[in-house]
Design the sequence.
């Protein structure tokens, strides 16, 4: 284990650690663009200069391995001057269009210039013009002028997604990122290139121009797209959720997440916004996509009252005549609470497990995405095991067919898109006298006279645990309230049992409470 | 001091290009001697001879060879014939006049470093050299100097010619390796160095044409005979491509340490009624010498390094009093701007910046502070990048501007050349 001195502080690191990794470990400031902990070393931005005692030339920290007894500093005047000029070299052909740039606020150039910059530009010549708004693929847009050619995105497609779509074309200061003509950037991990782009060169087609990042708050959660359970940062404000970005977790997802998982954020917001017409005639239409209140057939009813009524009806019918359907989309706590209500309070054995795409469960793309598109399959199985339940689906359909089962409560899947059999199951189960379905999103097939709908919370509105494919328990925490009348399974079980909800739990984030602009707590990190 | 034709003795004979002519003039004899030697002994002989890389950096060849790791991986020998340094034209002559000399030198070197495959990476513009080399390699295969079990020694060696696409950066050894691997010709991050991880990730030695050819006389007569030429630290002979304002520009093979004055005389001296103003002693990336320095300089690694310049590739450009230094620097900065690979930021942006400033000056838009900006930009490009192209672009600026500052100031104040008296457009009409 070599020991070295960094800016006067002693540190012991593992064999083969580079100087920049040692700096990161000590949480000392060091300028860098091209180095990324999840990618290979390119050594091209030449910003992470350090002075190593005994070496006359400045070294780049990213490609220099710590040797025992090294005395390293980046507080030296020579280093500071080199970094200042290095930053100026980056900026001389950069358009500096921060006011209209989507990256502003989480931009590596801005952040590092504030910290290490020269503040005295000397470039008086004409800048190089390059193409703007280049269509790289269906998700990513490129602005070549802003690009500082750090090659992170190119290395990402080479090393992580292994799709090799991106390359640097041309040479010298006319170099541009690009794709081979007719071969767009189209893979399930393409938006990671946007995350790792330290400037506003690569932007997400979906997110760009929608929000200024300093009006967004972020909190960590777990992606519900599949059983991998990638850790994510949810970016939200009082208007809703705007995007997901991966949060580093070495055990689960490293630095990355897939595009499919990112797309899911749009399902969380109560309304979909459509803009119709142009300029003067522009009309903004907000179409609800989430279930906003309880529905008893076509009659709207307070969701809390509906839940209490459901509880009473279930108790009246008793054990044999009622059934519960669960999926791998709820948290372990929810599954447990509702199952317990059925197994203990109602003394019913009729708890059924709805599996969506069993045949794809073992699929894995080799990076992150798994075929099991439920975040908590392991949790659902564990709950059934705990209460000793192992009913088959045919027992349920038979029971409904023969009229033994009169009322079915379904803890509906939050992400209906991954349940291709959604419609057929609704048809199947609505043959029962009453079908109660807790759902987050609206679905036409649920509009039936004997179907009661209870609005459910999505994963950003509740707390709980997901157990991923490897059996790792990951906690999610409450992030923001989007539908005020919705509640989660734990609350549903309490209401059905007849207990009231405490007031503060009902309105965690009241829309009537005026919240000032929510600034991101930590500025854009690299 | 006359020329010392160690390598170029028979270059004037047309037949020397072919296998028969080469053999008739004593060729392919050293190879037999070498095969009887221990490979380690050859490396020692080259090390003792003090031979230094003739491509530009001047790194001791024997030492480079000794860096190869002994890990049983296949080794590659690459001949750097991507002669891109402006004003250099020695390798071209060597390949076109004596291709077999290069092949012989390469087979001996490959035997020494136990490499069974070599490539000659030829600059894309040298189409004739490529044809001649291909023809010569075919002849050598037919005569058993290449291929399996060469001359019954049990040593196998294959050789190929690879034509580059004409990028200056591919003359840098790792840039050349990238290009040879089929990638974009961009230098690789070091460490690891090519001797450890080079072509296809295997140990690789890259040597210049002249260096590999020089192995032939070293093995022929021994290191001591070779060391008789040149100075203590710069041994042997060197080909200088003398160009510019001399009466007989051309390649001259002289012992290292020859006074620059004498080299100019050898090249026919200055043109009538013109006087010496400056000399670029080692290709355009070498800092320029002014008249006083040029008169004192001797052509060896130490003396030029002491003067803050370098021997480089041996391209000696003689500049007389009719040349405008601002105009010359403009050509040089344009070249490096055009040739920067764009990988490292200081070089990518800096070469463009330098060129734009000089361009502004020659087009009459210059400001006096531009002179200082030029020096500052160049100074911060120096020694900050993966390869030496950034230095190559910065050094001319850092020597032209301070040494001929009055010409730059005049140009900025008057909008015309101090020497020519005319504006840029008129100069290049």
Sequence:
């Amino acid at each position: 284990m070599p020991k070295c001195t960094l800016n006067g502080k002693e540190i012991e690191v593992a064999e083969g650690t580079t100087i920049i990794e040692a700096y990161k470990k000590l949480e000392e400031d060091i300028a860098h663009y091209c180095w990324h902990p999840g990618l290979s070393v390119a050594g091209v931005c030449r910003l992470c200069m350090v002075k190593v005692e005994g070496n006359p030339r400045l070294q780049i920290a990213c490609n220099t391995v710590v040797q025992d007894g090294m005395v390293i500093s980046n507080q030296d005047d020579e280093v500071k001057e080199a970094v200042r000029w290095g930053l100026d070299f980056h900026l001389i052909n950069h358009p500096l269009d921060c006011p209209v740039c989507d990256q502003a606020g989480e931009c590596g150039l801005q952040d590092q210039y504030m910290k290490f910059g020269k503040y005295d530009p000397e470039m008086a010549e004409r800048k190089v013009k390059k193409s703007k708004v280049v269509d790289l693929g269906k998700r990513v847009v490129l602005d070549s002028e802003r690009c500082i050619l750090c090659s992170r995105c190119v290395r990402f497609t080479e090393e992580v997604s292994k799709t090799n779509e991106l390359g640097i074309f041309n040479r010298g200061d006319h170099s541009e990122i690009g794709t081979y003509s007719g071969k767009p950037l189209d893979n399930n991990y393409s938006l990671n290139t946007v995350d790792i782009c330290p400037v506003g060169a690569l932007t997400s087609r979906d997110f760009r121009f929608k929000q200024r990042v300093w009006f967004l708050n972020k909190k960590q959660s777990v992606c519900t797209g599949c059983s991998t359970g990638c850790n994510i940062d949810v970016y939200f404000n009082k208007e809703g959720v705007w995007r997901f970005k991966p949060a580093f977790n070495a055990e689960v997802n490293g630095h990355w997440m897939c595009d499919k998982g990112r797309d899911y954020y749009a399902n969380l917001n109560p309304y979909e916004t459509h803009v119709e017409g142009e300029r003067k005639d522009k009309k903004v239409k907000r179409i609800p996509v989430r279930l906003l209140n309880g529905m008893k057939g076509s009659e709207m009813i307070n969701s809390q009252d509906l839940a209490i009524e459901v509880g009473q009806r279930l108790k009246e019918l008793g054990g044999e005549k009622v059934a519960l359907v669960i999926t791998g989309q709820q948290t372990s706590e929810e599954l447990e609470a509702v199952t317990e209500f059925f197994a203990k309070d109602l003394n019913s054995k009729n708890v059924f497990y709805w599996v969506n795409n069993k045949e794809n469960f073992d699929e894995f793309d080799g990076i992150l995405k798994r075929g099991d598109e439920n975040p908590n399959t392991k949790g659902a199985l564990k709950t059934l095991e705990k209460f000793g339940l192992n009913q088959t689906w045919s027992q349920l359909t038979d029971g409904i067919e023969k009229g033994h089962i009169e009322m079915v409560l379904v803890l509906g899947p939050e992400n209906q898109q991954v349940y291709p059999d959604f419609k057929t199951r609704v048809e199947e189960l609505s043959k029962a006298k009453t079908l109660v379905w807790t759902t987050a999103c609206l679905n036409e097939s649920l509009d039936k006279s004997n179907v009661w709908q209870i609005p459910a919370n999505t994963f950003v509105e509740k707390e709980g645990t997901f157990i991923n494919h490897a059996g790792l328990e990951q906690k999610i925490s409450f992030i923001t309230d989007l539908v005020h009348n919705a509640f989660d399974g734990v609350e549903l079980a309490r209401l059905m049992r007849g207990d009231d909800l405490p007031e503060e739990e009902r309105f965690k984030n009241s829309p009537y409470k005026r919240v000032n602009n929510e600034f991101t707590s930590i500025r854009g990190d690299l | 001091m006359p020329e010392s034709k160690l390598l170029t003795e028979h270059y004037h004979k047309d037949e020397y290009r072919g296998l028969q002519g080469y053999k008739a003039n004593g060729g392919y004899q050293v190879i037999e001697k070498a095969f009887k030697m221990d490979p380690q002994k050859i490396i020692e002989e080259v090390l003792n001879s003090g031979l230094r890389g003739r491509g530009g950096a001047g790194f001791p060849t024997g030492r480079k060879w000794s860096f190869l790791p002994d890990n049983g991986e296949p080794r590659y020998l690459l001949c750097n014939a991507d002669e891109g340094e402006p004003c250099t034209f020695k390798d071209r002559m060597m390949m076109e006049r004596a291709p077999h000399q290069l092949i012989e030198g390469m087979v001996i070197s490959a035997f020494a470093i136990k490499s069974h495959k070599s490539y000659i990476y030829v600059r894309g513009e040298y189409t004739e050299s490529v044809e001649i080399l291909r023809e010569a390699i075919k002849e050598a295969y037919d005569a058993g100097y290449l291929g399996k079990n060469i001359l019954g020694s049990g040593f196998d060696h294959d050789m190929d010619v690879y034509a580059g696409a004409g990028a200056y950066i591919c003359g840098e050894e790792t840039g050349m390796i990238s290009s040879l691997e089929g990638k974009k010709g961009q230098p690789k991050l070091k460490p690891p160095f090519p001797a450890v991880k080079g072509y296809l990730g295997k140990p690789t030695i890259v040597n210049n044409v002249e260096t590999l050819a020089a192995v032939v006389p070293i093995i022929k007569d021994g290191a001591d005979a070779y060391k008789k030429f040149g100075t203590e630290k710069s041994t042997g002979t060197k080909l200088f491509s003398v160009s510019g304002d001399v009466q007989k520009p051309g390649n001259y093979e002289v012992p290292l340490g020859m006074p620059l004055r004498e080299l100019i005389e050898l090249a026919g001296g200055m043109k009538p009624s013109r006087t010496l103003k400056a000399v670029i002693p080692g290709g355009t990336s070498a800092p320029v010498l002014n008249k006083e320095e040029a008169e004192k300089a001797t052509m060896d690694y130490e003396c030029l390094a002491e003067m803050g310049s370098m021997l480089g590739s041996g391209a000696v450009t003689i500049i007389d009093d009719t040349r405008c230094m601002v105009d010359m620097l403009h050509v040089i900065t344009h070249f490096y701007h055009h040739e920067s690979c764009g990988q490292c930021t200081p070089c990518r942006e800096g070469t463009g910046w330098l060129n734009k400033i000089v361009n502004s000056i020659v087009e009459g838009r210059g400001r006096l502070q531009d002179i200082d900006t030029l020096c500052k930009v160049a100074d911060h490009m120096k020694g900050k990048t993966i390869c030496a192209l950034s230095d190559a672009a910065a050094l001319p600026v850092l020597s032209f501007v301070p040494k001929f500052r009055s010409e730059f100031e005049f140009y900025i104040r008057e909008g015309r050349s101090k020497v020519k008296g005319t504006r840029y457009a008129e100069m290049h009409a």
